Fold this protein.
Amino acid sequence: MTKISKAACIGGGVIGGGWIARFLLAGIDVDVFDPHPEAGRIVGEVIANAEKAYAMLTGAPLPPRGRLRFCQTLVEAVSDADWIQESVPERLELKRGVLTEIDAAARLDALIGSSTSGLLPTDLQRDMKHPERLFVAHPYNPVYLLPLVEIVGGEKTSAATIRAAMERLPPIGMKGVHIAKEIEAFVGDRLLEALWREALWLIHDDICTVETLDDVIRYSFGLRWAQMGLFQTYRIAGGEAGMRHFLAQFGPCLAWPWTKLTDVVDLDEALIEKIGRQSDEQAAGLSIRQLERIRDENLVGILQALKGGDGGKGWGAGKLLKDFEQSLWAQGGGETMPADPSKPLRLVETKVSPAWVDYNGHMTEHRYLQVFGDTSDALLRLVGVDLAYVEAGHSYYTVESHIRHLGEAKLGQAIHSACQILDVDEKRLHVFHTLRDTATGELIATAEQMLLHVDSKAGKAMAAPAGVLDRVKAIAASHAELALPEGAGRHVGQRR
């Protein structure tokens, strides 16, 4: 896949900051220009939320985080980027001026995307000398978690630009959808505007409160939309006869005067105050940042559930996440043999995320096994047992584990795990992992594991190939000089 080598973001607000986080966590260097005096703080908070979300989202090895640089001028920010994302406020003259300035300073081969949520790309590219490379790249908030990008070209946008933009999104975990015809507000925002307009009338007419309306969405069709969208949901509603039966049965209802979609509600002070008061009550004192974190945790859970849909193949945005993780595993996370393999191999660095803790604020039991499993996986990638090796039909399976809980990993705590190889033969790999507090070095837990090399297609153990064995034995020989770890060989219930 064609990848973005360096990005520039002009504007670092909610959307711009989301783009910055998405690029950085994909391993892409980002230059930023935003004259707002609080830009550094705002972007930093968005990145912090994104890092927490990614820690929950995937166990796949992320690439080294890209470098972030704030620039003093727009020209400095865009001069060396191959993808430039404009995310300034939604005013035509402002955006047009900024994009024209970007066009004059950018490399000739650079792609220029606008985050506009409704302005026509033809209007935006009017004054550009190279308008063929301008397109709308409209994302959804939070950009670092929601993968969709609406790609819309203007009258002067080239087909090659659209293809290049679509090709560069999958490597950063996003899905581009090409909107075939230029239209104000594109597709997503038109659907949202229709729902929003009707919702405002329902509040205006005191049919329900904002919380009731949100409950109607999140406890019913919102759950369906997350996995199947609109048309596929209605196909199922048509029963065995499918969409044609649904349209025949419910089509006549469209002529009934149920909605006020063509009427514009008057957002006078009274209605604004009513909605504001009910929204404050619904928030129950939660800050915007707290709501963002709750939103992110819930989105991660939904994406993880969809990743296991369709018998494990993934469904909707979950399939996109699964494919993104596959590409990360294929890259291997950049594991290289350490300079000094005579010490236990420090293989996993992470933080205890909100999704990992129980009601006491401590890391729950199965997450310890996850971290130790990630440690074994990192060791295997180090010796050549990577995604390609597994897809070829061979791997190491864990056949026995013994975990000791010696301390407590708490919410937000930085932790790391290290691996010592105790023994190896043609089929077996015996390892001992330690989990420690990164700041203090305090031992939190240990895991002793036996792994068996298998032919996964045949479903039986087999000898590992010489190339893998040679790498494992080289590390094992270095670790043979180490003392046997305290606790190695223990069994459940054994007195200390």
Observations:
- The chain has a mean pLDDT of 92.
- The chain is about 40% helix and 20% strand.
- Residues 285 and 474 are 58 Å apart (CA to CA).
